[in-house]
């Protein structure tokens, strides 16, 4: 939680767009995840700010923003449709780490909702994608 606080205080403009993109992606994911778990409106607001950033970029046609926007929506409002859309968007991108993360988060969501057979499928796919990406510790 303290790391999100530190990252939230950074400006939402940055001369190095890739650095800003990565920071806002993971700050948004963490904010929505922890905001829902802790029922913390300030974290949800931070997540909304990140979501708006990617929504604008996606609307402008940024191919890199589309899978992140979909992932943020899925973590904000987790359900089968939002996760399946996020996975589809991530699969169309070349961002293996997002593909892995989308499958992992969906698998965990399915476990929480007592769908163990389908959860195993998505978690196994996440492990394979993490391995492909080089994140052997996650696989």
Share of helix, binned: over 70%
Number of helices: 7
Instruction: Round the mean pLDDT to the nearest integer and report it.
Output: 90
Which spans of ≥5 residues are poorly predicted at pLDDT below 50? Answer: none
Largest sheet: none
User: In sequence order, what are the helices and strands, one letter per element?
Assistant: HHHHHHH
Shape: globular
Strand content: under 5%
| CA-atom Rg in angstroms | 15 Å
Number of strand elements: 0
Structural class: mainly alpha
Measure the end-to-end span: 25 Å
Structure overview:
With 139 residues, the chain is mainly α. Helices cover 78% and strands 0% of the residues. The protein contains 7 helices and no strands. It has helices at residues 2-8, 17-38, 41-59, 65-76, 80-92, 96-112, 116-133. The radius of gyration is 15 Å and the shape is globular. The two termini are 25 Å apart. The mean pLDDT is 90.
Short description:
The protein has 139 residues and is mainly α. The protein is 78% helix and 0% strand.
Give the SSE layout.
Layout: H1 2-8, H2 17-38, H3 41-59, H4 65-76, H5 80-92, H6 96-112, H7 116-133
Helix pairs in contact: 2-3, 2-4, 3-4, 4-5, 5-6, 6-7
Structure characteristics:
mainly alpha; 139 residues
């Amino acid at each position: 939680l303290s790391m999100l606080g530190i990252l939230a205080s950074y400006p939402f403009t940055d001369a190095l767009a890739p650095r800003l993109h990565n920071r806002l992606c993971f700050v948004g994911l963490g904010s929505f995840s922890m905001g829902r778990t802790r029922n913390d409106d300030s974290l949800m607001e931070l997540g909304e700010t990140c979501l708006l950033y990617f929504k604008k970029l996606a609307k402008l046609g940024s191919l890199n923003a589309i899978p992140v926007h979909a992932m943020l929506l899925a973590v904000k409002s987790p359900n089968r449709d939002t996760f399946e859309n996020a996975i589809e968007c991530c699969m169309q991108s070349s961002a293996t780490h997002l593909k892995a993360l989308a499958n992992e988060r969906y698998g965990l969501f399915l476990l929480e909702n007592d769908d163990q057979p389908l959860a195993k499928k998505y978690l196994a796919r996440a492990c394979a994608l993490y391995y492909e990406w080089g994140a052997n510790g996650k696989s």
